[in-house]
Amino acid sequence: LALAPRLASLTxxxxxxxxxxxxxxVSHGRMKEKEARAKFRQIVSAVHYCHQKNIVxxxxxxxxxxxxxxxxxxxxxxxxxxxxxxxSKLDTFCGSPPYAxxxxxxxxxxxxxxxxxxxxxxxxxxxxxxxxxxxxxNLKELRERVLRGKYRVPFYMSxxxxxxxxxxxxxxxxxxxxxxxxxxxxWINIGYxxxxxxxxxxxxxxxADA
Length: 210
Prior knowledge:
mainly alpha, Transferase(Phosphotransferase), domain 1, three-stranded antiparallel sheet, 5 strands, globular, ATP binding
């Protein structure tokens, strides 16, 4: 894969990581929005890079987000990842049900990035609230809740955070936001004025030194 060289900075050997984001949330509880924003910017940047390389992860969840010794995010477990091509549909239901997009529960074919984008919405909710937006006693109950698309908005969640969540957790995949749009969202850039989130650019080769 063309993605392989860059994956070194997207993934993290377990010996170098401080733990999963899931474990952090269990131990410390929900993150304040400022901390969640810093982590989520890294996640969005990494996933957008994958999508630029036509790779869809398909199993984004708190357990697959690792924290290194400096508390930076590393994405792990590309076991369900696949290449996608515009105009060609994928049809495999894979990943973790609480993070799965509604179209997967319906057995519909999908382009690729839109299922990761739904999962990112679930991740953001989890970072900020310490719980899942969609849950159930069994898979049938979970499926019904995901297909309704209704979730509780915690009283402490800011309006800007609620607004960005609603751009991710859209039942119709065609109306779901793109990551390019998210990079310009107000919430994700609060405190980063002048340093707005932008797509990663490959460093240019300096052939003069070759």
